[in-house]
Amino acid sequence: VRIWQIIDASDLTSSTAPMMTLESRGNHLLSALAFSADGKWLAGGDSSGAVSIWHMPDGSIRYRLAGQPNRVMELMFSNQGTQLIIATLHGVWIWNIAANQLVQMNNIPHATTNAYEIDISPKGNLVASARGDGTIWLQSLPNGRLLARLSTKRLSANNMTFSDDGSLLAIGLSDGTIDVWQINPTEPEAGVGTLIHEIQSSVNRGELAFSPNNQYLLSAGLVGEVALWSV
Question: Are 184 and 166 in contact (CB under 8 A)?
Fold first, then answer.
């Protein structure tokens, strides 16, 4: 992992040398990276399921977790930087970063079906996972309680993303449809997830992204196209 210090983005060129280079002590490809909000920690997960955690800014490797099977798909630190959430095809692990040690808080298996697409709410309180049976599971963190199963009409999900405030979830499906769900985990009796849009799109085979104010949704295609939608 190469780290650059950006002071003035206009001065950054392709020839600028990195501030430091970090080694993961592994032989597998890195598949996910995440900084803690305060910049104190950087976590990197690889295709074997191992996770390396570096202390910044000196770049020393402090922890290495190797108990997660299969490729690391998502990593996220809690807003306070005290917890690390690790998601793979088979489950979600929550670790607490205590004084000079890591303590596992919970392990949430993905039941009998693997999760092929995963996103974690920016608040760190929800994980959404697209399952092999065509449903999207919403689970609370760190306890893993199942809040809802969202229907995708048995279609597979290509991409999935929460909005910055966690109130919306966009799901790109294999037929080109983009489903946009309103998420309200605090009122399960009223329905945690409410489908508010089914967008028919020929430009949906790549990344999805909400604008910070939830006004717009971007979807990327495979041939250089990007579509901008009004939410």
Answer: no
Q: Are 22 and 56 in contact (CB under 8 A)?
A: no
Query: Mind listing the pLDDT tens digit for each residue in 6-57?
Result: 776 666 555 578 888 998 877 889 999 999 988 889 999 999 999 999 998 8
Length of the chain: 231
Neighbours of 128 (CB within 10 A): 26
DSSP SS3 for 15? coil
DSSP 3-state assignment of 112?
A: coil
**Reported pTM:** 0.81
The pair phi, psi for residue 202, each rounded to 5°, is -90, -5
Q: Counting beta carbons within 10 angstroms of the beta carbon of residue 18, is it exposed (0 to 12), middle (13 to 18) or buried (19 or more)? A: exposed
Contact 137, 181 (CB under 8 A): no
Which residues are within 8 A (CB) of 172 and not within 5 positions of it... i.e. 6 or more apart?
Answer: 157, 158, 159, 160, 178, 204, 205, 208, 219
**Residue written as tokens 């489903």?**
179
What's the pLDDT tens digit per position in 186-205?
765 557 889 999 998 877 77
Taking alpha carbons only, the member of 46, 125, 42, 118 closest to residue 81 is 42
d(CA 226, CA 20): 34
Rg value, the chain, Cα:
18
